[in-house]
Amino acid sequence: xxxxxxxxxxxxxxxxxxxxxxxxxxxxxxxxxxxxxxxxxxxxxxxxxxxxxxxxxxxxxxxxxxxxxxxxxxxxxxxxxxxxxxxxxxxxxxxxxxxxxxxxxxxxxxxxxxxxxxxxxxxxxxxxxxxxxxxxxxxxxxxxxxxxxxxxxxxxxxxxxxxxxxxxxxxxxxxxxxxxxxxxxxxxxxxxxxxxxxxxxxxxxxxxxxxxxxxxxxxxxxxxxxxxxxxxxxxxxxxxxxxxxxxxxxxxxxxxxxxxxxxxxxxxxxxxxxxxxxxxxxxxxxxxxxxxxxxxxxxx
Length: 300
What we know:
The chain is an alpha/beta fold. It has nine helices and eleven strands. Helix 7 links the parallel strand 7 (194-196) and strand 8 (222-223).
């Protein structure tokens, strides 16, 4: 009988591209992973992986086995969710992956909420903007708080359910003593010293497209994906920044944040989980807390 743990290792190696990367993800040594994959190869009697430059790739047999492994692992996840639904109780732990820009107004308030309603629940949180949905598909996390800009294609992997949380506009951020509180037309920023994310990022591409719709191509003075750095430059009067509303601390001194009047740039924040026939009470509790925090943060 095939070992489910070895099937999961095969899936992880295929997703990570190398045994070393998979071992790091699984908190094992590369030798231990290689040993288990060798045992899996002996069980099926055919090579499952082949060298591909500095990485490894699935053989045809490996691809066939991985298709079955996905179904087997999904069925196990379904069984776990069904048992949790029958018990109707929230589990002890859940893993969340969230964007750095959501910590202040969504993640931090949300993680205080389950403690009062579900004292047995501990939520661990990975703050990252890299490959969150892939981590969810691999089973590394249980819930993802992610984003999607209008220009981005829907790249949601199969077997993942996405639930919209909040429509989050970018605001024009300047030093508190610059200008007034009226909305600013994006075209007015053509003459400003801008601090924006790199155009290779999702937010940077969205800002670039918005400026072009307003009739100009920005020539930013400061390029950084670090939102804290953008806000610091704006507070110092060195730049004008375009920052998602939820990334701003409403109590932060020294800055003014106003809406874009003519060509709004916005992102959709969403919560994602693995799809199951039965709702898992634990992930449901986490998403409910995120949704409440997003709604209260939006109206704050």
